[in-house]
Amino acid sequence: MRKTAFNVTEIMQLLPHKFPFLLLDNVSNVVPGKSAEGYKNFSVNEWFFSGHFPNNPIVPGVLLIESMAQLITFIHLSENLEQSTQNESSQNIGYLAKADIRFLSIVRPGDKLIMTAEIIKKMGKTSRAKVKAMVNKKVVVEGEITVSQQ
Amino acid sequence: MTNKVELQKQNDLRRAYLDSIKDVIINSLNLDLKPELVDDDVSLFGLGLGLDSIDSLDLVIGLEEKFKIEIEEEDVQAFKSINFLVDYVISKTEVEQ
Hints:
Oligomer: heterodimer
Shape of chain A: globular
Number of helices of chain A: 3
CATH class of chain A: Alpha Beta
Order of helices and strands of chain A: HEEHHEEEE
Strand content of chain A: 35-45%
Number of strands of chain A: 6
Shape of chain B: globular
Order of helices and strands of chain B: HHH
């Protein structure tokens, strides 16, 4: 039976991203090459809160995009999960190519960002996904992200 | 006479597709161009419009939405020029209708 849920240790074996730039804590409902859900818990100890902003911590929008782009990369890398080794997968870097995103609400320390991503088109090594992220059942980010695999 | 009328109809149909495809190209890629200034034989890649992989994806999605067709990855070779693209879209539209 195919594995569809992954904890952070398993995510790190597949994604090339590591601390402090791994922005995915858990992935579930993975349909390789098609879609997945995932979440990231933003703790007050995150490295960027001290400067963004002092006394008013807010998750930078670019990191929300990055978090969803990592979920998209995971969807693609999960396609050859059984064949790939850690070394091989760490060479498969997904580059953020384009983002058409609407930010609907601010994300702060303590928020659990629950994301969904669905690939809507793939041409060669470039793919576009429809993405949505929610906090407390409220949509905070939505749009489309294009990623190119190296 | 009938052949002439039929030929005229085909030409009109092709012209309509050509104009629509130019609109999709201009809108999908946010080009600051008027459709009449885009040559029918201009190459989509390289020295022509110079599309990159992201532009190609934008164009494919734009064409799929406009003409309600499914464009396969291996068919992108049809994107050599706008005229090639017109032939491709007409053939796909006929097949999928």
